[in-house]
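Same chain as my last thread, 207 residues:
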Amino acid sequence: MRVGSLLIALCLVAPVSAQTIYRDRVNNNDNRDQNDRANAVKRAEQNAAKTQMEAAKLKIEKAFEASPDWIEAQTQLKQAQTELETASKPILDDLKSKPEYEQAVQRQSDAKAQVAANQQNPSTATPAKLTTPATQALDAADDVTKMEEAAIAADPKAAELKAKVATAGAKLNALTQQRDAAVLADPEWIAAKKAHDQAAVTAAQNR
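reply #2:
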């Protein structure tokens, strides 16, 4: 009698357990699907907000860069750079004929060639073989730059034009900072960024 009762109890419990497992599995799958759909929605919201941020940014930048102050700063910088390039050409041409300059340029060229050769044979290229010529190339390039800058600085007209380029560049840089600040203060950009950040937080919480 007891054995029969036990069998009946097992028969009743087993289906219930199987049903419970199946129901839990279905619920888990449903929850996962819901989370996936929610995340997809949030990703779409993020992308839309990002597009709105870029549109607002571009709108401010275009308006700012069409202003007389910006156009004038751009024109002054380009003009100063052209004048400096023109004044520097004969100075640098003369420098190229000097032995110490020629030697520095040759050192740089040889070191670059050695770097390229080592990179083509990675099996035999030790760290020292790669870093030593690379360092030598950088040092030689630094020597070349220093000699060019010294030659230009020694010429009063070229030195004056170099200072003019620096002044024009600083003016444009200041306007660039004003432009970027205008973007960050734009209500449309702020609203779009807020929507983007909220969507990102929600998506992270649903993972």
